[in-house]
């Protein structure tokens, strides 16, 4: 039975692959988003649309204050979290969980001989964003609530050697950040989609496997969320890890989503900050 399902699945899917992994439309699961064996229904409320690692925050979609992170720390007092990293100034704050993810990435860079990283900006609260906007104006800053820095999911990374566009740190991140769940949020070739000029320093955490798909398909978050909504479900293989990613619309009354019953896989749920949630399941090893 399992073998036959596997055959049907492979036969029914369009597949794109590169050296690092594969991305397939997951037609079987997308069809009805039905509960399969090993899955249970969980009720999602509309407020969950605005929380999680995949929320879109831009000129159109502000962050909800309730979704702002509650683990913000002043980095100067927590340098053990980010060993070897320079800080532009002592006031920079960051979500502690983001600092840990950033440190894992820069540790891997160090193993490649790239280690002149700086943090030039981290978390900004609403008052700080209001001040920045008043000071710099609409062409250079976003109003309070509309910046990813308010969501605690982004940071501006610099190099003490050169401007990021030319620095080894910038080049390393462009090639490798996806492996650690980060994406370059405002690429040079996507200014028409993001509405933001090229920022080789601004990285956003979305988590794996999303960073892989975005890198592989050359999509920014706006495009990626549209793609998930259209495909409804995709299946991603990275090395030995297999994931399904499913988008669910969430109307005012909420929605039921399928998640692994205990013991049959890990999952993460995130809103898109528009009109739905995304359930990412890491399938148990075959
Ligand atoms: Zn930034």
TrEMBL record:
InterPro entries: DD-CPase-like (IPR052179), VanY-like_core_dom (IPR003709), VanY/YodJ_core_dom (IPR058193), Zn_M74/Hedgehog-like (IPR009045). The keyword Phosphoprotein does not apply. It holds the Pfam family VanY. Gene3D superfamilies: 3.30.1380.10, 3.30.200.180. Residues 92-207 form the D-alanyl-D-alanine carboxypeptidase-like core domain. PANTHER family: D-ALANYL-D-ALANINE CARBOXYPEPTIDASE, PEPTIDOGLYCAN L-ALANYL-D-GLUTAMATE ENDOPEPTIDASE CWLK. This is D-alanyl-D-alanine carboxypeptidase family protein. The lineage of its organism: Bacteria, Bacillati, Bacillota, Bacilli, Bacillales.
């Amino acid at each position: 039975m399992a073998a036959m399902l596997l055959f049907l699945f492979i036969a029914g899917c369009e597949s794109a692959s590169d050296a690092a992994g594969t991305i397939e439309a997951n037609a079987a699961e997308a069809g009805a988003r039905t509960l399969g064996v090993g899955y249970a229904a969980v009720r999602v409320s509309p407020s969950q649309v605005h929380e999680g690692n995949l929320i879109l925050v831009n000129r159109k979609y502000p962050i909800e204050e309730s979704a702002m992170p509650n683990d913000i720390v002043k980095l100067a007092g927590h340098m053990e979290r980010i060993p070897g990293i320079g800080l532009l100034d002592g006031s920079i704050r960051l979500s502690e969980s983001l600092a840990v993810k950033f440190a894992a990435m820069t540790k891997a860079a160090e193993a490649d001989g790239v280690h002149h990283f700086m943090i030039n900006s981290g978390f900004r609260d609403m008052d700080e964003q209001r001040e920045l906007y008043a000071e710099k104006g609409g062409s250079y800053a976003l109003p309070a609530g509309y910046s990813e820095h308010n969501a605690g999911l982004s940071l501006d990374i610099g190099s003490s050697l050169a401007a990021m566009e030319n620095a080894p740190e910038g080049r390393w991140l462009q090639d490798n950040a996806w492996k650690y769940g980060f994406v370059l949020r405002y690429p040079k070739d996507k200014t028409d989609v993001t509405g933001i000029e090229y920022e080789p320093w601004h990285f956003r955490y979305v988590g794996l496997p999303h960073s892989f798909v975005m890198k592989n398909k050359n999509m920014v978050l706006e495009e990626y969320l549209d793609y998930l909504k259209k495909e409804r479900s995709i299946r991603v293989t990275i090395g030995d890890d297999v994931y399904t990613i499913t988008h669910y619309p969430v109307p005012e009354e909420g929605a039921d989503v399928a998640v692994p019953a205990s013991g049959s896989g890990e999952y993460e749920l995130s809103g898109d900050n528009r009109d739905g949630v995304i359930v990412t399941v890491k399938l148990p090893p075959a």
